[in-house]
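Deliverable D4.2, example record:
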Amino acid sequence: MRITSKLIALARSAGALAGVAVAASAERTPEQQAAYAALLAACPNSADLEAVYARAAQADPVKPAAKPQPKADAKPSTGKAKRTAKPEKPSKPANTAKQAEISERVALVGKLRALVSGFYNGPSPAVRSNAKRFTVAIYSDLFAAPKHRTTLAKLTERDESALALILKHGTKAGAFDPVALNLDAGIFSRLCSVGYIIEAADPTAPFALSTAALTNARRVLKRAA
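Output generated by the structure prediction step:
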C-alpha cells in the first residue's frame, strides 16, 4: 500500500506524533478518535494501518538551509562616478502671514465693491475685482499722461461713483491712495483728464480731489443718501 500524505495526516491527527499507541483508543481525545476512525476506514488491513501509523509517528526530516551564493566578482571600474540619489528638498513652510494678508485684501476689495455699487451698479465698477494691487507708479504715469480721457459734460455715474468712494475713504481734504482703494485705472485716468485729481504731499495718500471734484463728490453722496 502506498503511504500518502493524506494517510499520514490522519494518523497524526489520531495521535501518532503525540505518542498515542495505534491501538490505545482509551488515550485518544474525541477529535483524535474521530481521525482514528477515518484512518481505519482508509486502511482496513491492520498491516497497512501499522505501517502508516509508524511512518506518521516519525517527524518529517528538516531540509537543510540553502547555502548562500558567493557574490559575483565586482565589475571593473569604467571610470564613471556612480550617481548618488539627490536628497529631497525640504518643503517650504506655509507663509501664513502672506496668506492672511491676501485674505484681508480680498475681504477689503469685497467691501469696497459693495460700497461703490450703492452709487453705480453697472458693468465695470470703479473698484477692480482683482485683489492684486497695481503699483502706485501705474497711477502716477496716468496722472502725468492720462490714456483715458473725457470732459466734464461727459462724466458718467461710474466716474462719479469713484469720487464718492474717494471722499468716503480718503482724508477730510480729499487725499487718497488709489492702490489701497484698488481703483480702476481707466476711471482714475478719466478723472485726471478733467483736472479732478491733483497731487498731494502725503506719501501715504499721494493724490487728492480738486475743489471741484470735492463739490461733485459731496453731491453724489447727498444724492445717494
